[in-house]
Each structure stands twice: as C-alpha cells, then as structure tokens.
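Morning. Coffee machine broken again, so started the prediction first thing and wrote up yesterday's gels while waiting. Chain of 292 residues, entered below exactly as on the submission form.
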Amino acid sequence: MSGAGDDTLLDVKNLSVRFQTTKGPVEAVRGVSFTLGRERLGIVGESGSGKSQTGRAILGLTAKNGRISADHVRFDGMDLARTTDQAMRKVRGARISMIMQDPRYSLNPVIRVGEQIAEAYRVHTGANRSEARRRTIEMLNRVRIREVEKVVNLYPHEVSGGMGQRIMIAMMLIPDPDILIADEPTSALDVTVQLQVLAILDDMVRERGMGLIFISHDLNLVASFCDRVLVMYGGQIMETLDAGKLHEAEHPYTRGLLNCLPTLNDARDLAVLERDPAWLEPVGAGGPGGGQ
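Came back before lunch.
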C-alpha cells in the first residue's frame, strides 16, 4: 500500500525539529517527508532516531525549547505546520489522536478511568453526560475489556498495564479520529497482551478506514503488523519499504539493525551495528529519506 493518491490523509514534506539547549542546537528531525494513507505505517529506529519527535511534531506537541519547520504538513486542506493554535486544538484528539508509551503517565491518577474517557468524548463532540457514558461503555467493550461496569469506576493505579493501554486506546479513539499516532504502544506489555492490543488497533484501522502511524523499535513486530515502514536514523529517513519486504532491505543501516536481532536457532554472536558518518549528511526530500 503506497499511501499516496486520493486516499492520502497526511502529506508531510521536509519536516524538521530543532531544540535549543545549553550546549547548542540539536537537530532531532531533519528533512523528513512521507505520506500516510488509510494504512498502517511503521516508523522504526534506535532510541534518539527522531521517530517519536516526528509524531509529536505533526500535532505540534514539541517541547517549548523546540522549533518545528516544514514545507508543509497537509491534513484535510490544512497545513498543520502553519495553522493557528485554535485550529490545532480542534485537530488534536478529535481528528488526529496520539497514544503515548505508558498509560500510567497519560491518565490522570485522581480521576476514575470512565470519567476520563467520557470527558474526551464530551470535549470533542459536545455530547451530554448520559450519551458520553453510553459511548464510554460501548468503547470499552470494543477494546475487549471485561466487567466494563466495574472498570469505569476504577482509578488508573487499580488497572493492569495491559488494561491501562486498552483504556488509552478507547480514550483516543472515542472521538472517531481520522489518524491515530501510536508511540511504542506495546513496549511495556508482555507478548500475549501485546498481540491482543495490536489486534484491537488492527480492527479499528480496518473498520474505520483510519490511518495509523505506528512508532516502534521492534523491527519484527513492525514487519508483521504494518503495511509500510520508514527506517529513521539521525533524524532522517534512511529507507522506505513495504513491511513484508523489510528483511529484504538494502540500506546498510537497516541491514545492520536486522543483523542485531537475536534468533533462537542461531548460535553466532550478535553483530555490532557500525554507523557510517555519511548517513548523517542531509539527504533532502529526493534522497533516501524522500518517503514517496
């Protein structure tokens, strides 16, 4: 799935994020370009590669010492890189939602989970309390939570990690957004729960015709779950390829990442990833980071 054409939901061109620090400027994202259709787009790379900052920049959630620039970030006739704060508030959550890594840091610890989900629905739709509660119950059932009537009255510390992640998914999807950005949504979960959460996300994307940006460091997971993959290093896109062909990647960085993955049937020592300084040279929209 290419992500281009009439079904394009998001068009990012030459996106950059720079942070001003006490030690000077840091280029976290450098000239990233890609399109997103009604598909599951994976973004992979090492910690510090810029993948999470790319997702945050789309929604204007960069820290105060950060500066976002782009030729454009087009979504539904708007350029999100140049729109007003008021317009962005109407986009965040309602049209484009983001799931963070750990629900314990995203949920308010002193408010019951049912109230938090209902509030997300009311803020974005203007629904009354009874309608919001009805939709909350319905959404928790959709994300396969048992004993929903009990769960809505629990506080975040009273739910498990897997249940907390499902609650976050319900909260982010209840306004029925067009795009979901999931930043390492399964990294803190065991394998069984991880697969259950991925199945929920997959169902939602297919049923609603959404676009999903799935940010992860797990190459095998992305290869099995996504349609396309962007491989990032040093704030740039090194390679864009079909997820099913990830293990046929040609870029030496992607090959290096794959060679570092352990396997049960291989007794050899794991390879050490050798980084070429040339990879940090600007690639521009037309180079390997073009993303088209």
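The chain has two domains: 1-95+178-292, 105-176. Going to sketch it on the whiteboard this afternoon.
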